[in-house]
Amino acid sequence: MILDKEKLRDNLDRVIWDIEEARLKRSEHLIVQLIVVSKYTEVENIKTLYELGQRNFGENQVQQLVSRVEELDELPLAWHMIGTLQKNKINKLIDANPVLLQSLDSLDLAIELNKRLEAKGKTMSALLQINSAKEETKSGVMPEDAIDTYNKIQESCPNIELKGVMSIGAHTEDKDIVKSSFETTYSIYEKLQTKGATICSMGMSEDFKLAIECGSNMVRVGSALFKDE
Ligand SMILES: *Cc1c(COP(=O)(O)O)cnc(C)c1O
C-alpha cells in the first residue's frame, strides 16, 4: 500500500515523539537512532520517508535488500541487514555494501563471512545478535555465551568490525518478560563497551519505548510507520 506524504509524516512524527519521550525517561544524554524497517512496504514509501529526512533503512532478506539498493541507487541511503543471513547469500550481501549487518548470529557464520570479506578485500560492520529470551524460533547466541562469542569473533575475524549487539524482545504480551529480555541484552552490551561496543539495537513497533527505557540506542521500526489508520 502506497501511503501519501501527509500520512507518512504523521506516522513518523508519532514515532519520533515516542522515541523522544522514552529517551528522556532514560537519560537526556541518550541518543537513539531510528532504522526504518522497509521489508513489508513499497519503494515509493521509502522514497517519501527519505524526503521526510530518513536515511537508515533495514531489510530482512538479502534478495530484497540487493534489489532496493539497486533501485534506490541515486539516494544516499544507509542499508541495514536485519534478518537471518544464509551462508549462500554472503557474497550477495557483501556486494550490496550494507552499512551494518545487525544479525550476525553465530561464530560459525562470522568465520564464513570473514573468509568471503577477506577474499574481496573488504570489511563489514556488524552486531552480534543475542537470543535474550531464549526462544527456539529466534536466532542469535544465548546470553550466557554472548561475551565469549563476541571476543572470539573479534580475535578471529579481522574483516568484521563488531559494533555492539542486537536483540528482538521476548514474544509475549507480558511486559515484565519483554523488559527482562531487554535488560539481559543491555547488561551484555554494558560489559562489551570496554571492547568498543557502541550500539545496542533493540525495540520494534510494539516495544521500542520499553526498549529505549532499558537503554537501547537503536530502534528498528516498521509497521508503526506504514500503518494507514
Ligand atoms: C520486521 C522486523 C522489525 C520491525 O518490526 P515491526 O514490528 O514492523 O516494527 C525489526 N527488527 C527485525 C529483526 C525485524 O525482522
CATH topology: TIM Barrel
What's the N-to-C terminus distance? 12 Å
* CATH architecture call: Alpha-Beta Barrel
Biggest sheet: strand arrangement: 7-6-5-4-3-2-1-8
Largest sheet: 8 strands, parallel
* Helical content band: 40-55%
Secondary-structure element order, as H and E? Answer: HEHEHEHEHEHEHEHEH
* Structural domains: how many: 1
Question: What features would you describe in this structure?
Answer:
- The chain has 229 residues and is α/β, with parallel strands linked by helices.
- It has one domain: Alpha-Beta Barrel (TIM Barrel), CATH 3.20.20.10.
- 45% of the residues lie in helices and 18% in strands.
- The protein has nine helices and eight strands.
- It has an eight-stranded parallel β-sheet.
- Strand 5, helix 6 and strand 6 form a beta-alpha-beta unit.
- The chain is globular.
- The mean pLDDT is 97.
- The structure holds pyridoxal-5'-phosphate (PLP).
- The site of pyridoxal-5'-phosphate has 14 residues, from strand 8 and helix 9.
- Pyridoxal-5'-phosphate binds next to strand 8 and helix 9.
How would you describe this structure in keywords?
9 helices; binds pyridoxal-5'-phosphate; 45% helix; alpha/beta; 229 residues; 18% strand; TIM Barrel
Care to give the gist of this entry?
With 229 residues, the chain is α/β, with parallel strands linked by helices.
